[in-house]
Design a protein that fits this description.
single chain; mainly alpha; 11 helices; 79% helix; globular
Length: 331
């Protein structure tokens, strides 16, 4: 059986001049595309806010003003501030490779990452002590970071990914509005990326952040388009006709399919983010990273679906249980 551990090695951004120039050009290209995507999303958001505001203005102009104020506040809290947190985080170019002893440059970066981890609550005190003891030994520090990454960090990051995928799955399955699904997917994915960055204490490079931005917006557009999904297009005719005879089953199945698809795409974005932060040297190409992320998504989505099925009805029943308890106390 193949070993799933990914030994950690950290590369600083200092590279030979020629490759650096090529990377710089590529980075500018991706950042420019991501900037255009962000502008397009903001235009869609502002257009939707103005449209709702105009309807509210028919009730009273102050109702519209209040809505605009709340919308601006929510936009800052849910979108602008998480993006700000991501951008101001330090950036490291991290790769996991099988061999190669740490150079002096990598050792200095190991120390920076280790000190960052020791100041945070994501790892246990025992793991912090291991880092402190290995801080003056490059190879021991590399081994300690590798162990922490495989035993703690990766697990925590996967938990964050599945938590947000479950949120997207339930939200978009319940929602019957494509535009609302678009905003939900964008907000939840930004929050997920922010939490992954906060767990690690650093962010991907601007180039990879730009790619993530494009992935998030593409997923959101897919989520909006799924609102018009027709089960007749994806199921055999006989099966679709049989489901059509059962009351309400087709709308429910359609909503569930939307939620699962959006949850799967959210997991994929989360795994790609994790791989940009801790990328296996064998998966540095775009094609390999995307393939690896998709395979991991397929493994995680059954767990997310199971948790969603379990927790959503439980919350629904708990709500009625609380109401019954309140009524019984009144009597």
């Amino acid at each position: 059986m193949a070993n799933n551990k990914e030994p950690l090695q950290i590369e600083t951004k200092k590279e030979p001049k020629q490759p650096k120039q090529k990377a710089s050009t590529s980075t500018k290209f991706w950042v420019a595309i991501a900037f255009g995507v962000m502008i397009l999303f903001l235009l869609i958001l502002v257009s939707s806010i103005i449209d709702i505001g105009e309807r509210l203005a028919k009730i009273h102009e102050y109702v519209a003003y209040g809505f605009y104020g709340v919308s601006f506040l929510l936009t800052y809290i849910l979108i602008i501030n998480p993006v700000r947190i991501i951008l101001v985080s330090p950036a490291f170019s991290i790769e996991t490779v099988m061999d190669d002893k740490p150079t002096h440059r990598r050792y200095q970066t190991y120390k920076r990452v280790s000190k960052n981890l020791m100041e945070r609550d994501e790892i246990s005190q025992t793991e912090k002590d291991k880092l402190a003891l290995a801080l003056n030994n490059p190879e021991a520090l590399q081994l300690a970071l590798n162990e922490i990454y495989n035993s703690t960090m990766k697990k925590k990051m996967n938990q964050v990914i599945m938590k947000h995928a479950k949120t997207v799955l339930i939200s978009t399955a319940i929602s019957q509005n494509g535009r609302l699904d678009l905003f939900t997917v964008v907000v939840v994915n930004i929050r997920m990326i922010k939490e992954l960055v906060q767990i690690c204490g650093f962010r991907p490079s601007y180039k990879n952040l730009a790619k993530l931005t494009i992935n998030v917006f593409s997923t959101a557009l897919i989520a909006e388009g799924l609102e018009n999904i027709n089960l007749n297009d994806i199921l055999p005719t006989s099966t679709a006709n049989m489901l059509g005879e059962i009351p309400l089953i087709k709308p429910v199945m359609s909503s569930v399919a939307q939620g699962i698809t959006n949850g799967l795409l959210t997991i994929r974005i989360g795994v790609v983010t994790r791989k940009y932060l801790f990328a296996d040297s064998k998966e540095l190409s775009k094609k390999a990273i995307q393939k690896g992320a998709f395979m991991e998504s397929l493994k995680m989505i059954p767990i997310v679906v199971k948790d969603s099925i379990i927790h959503f009805p439980q919350k629904f029943f708990d709500m009625f249980k609380r109401n019954k308890d309140e009524e019984s106390t009144e009597f």
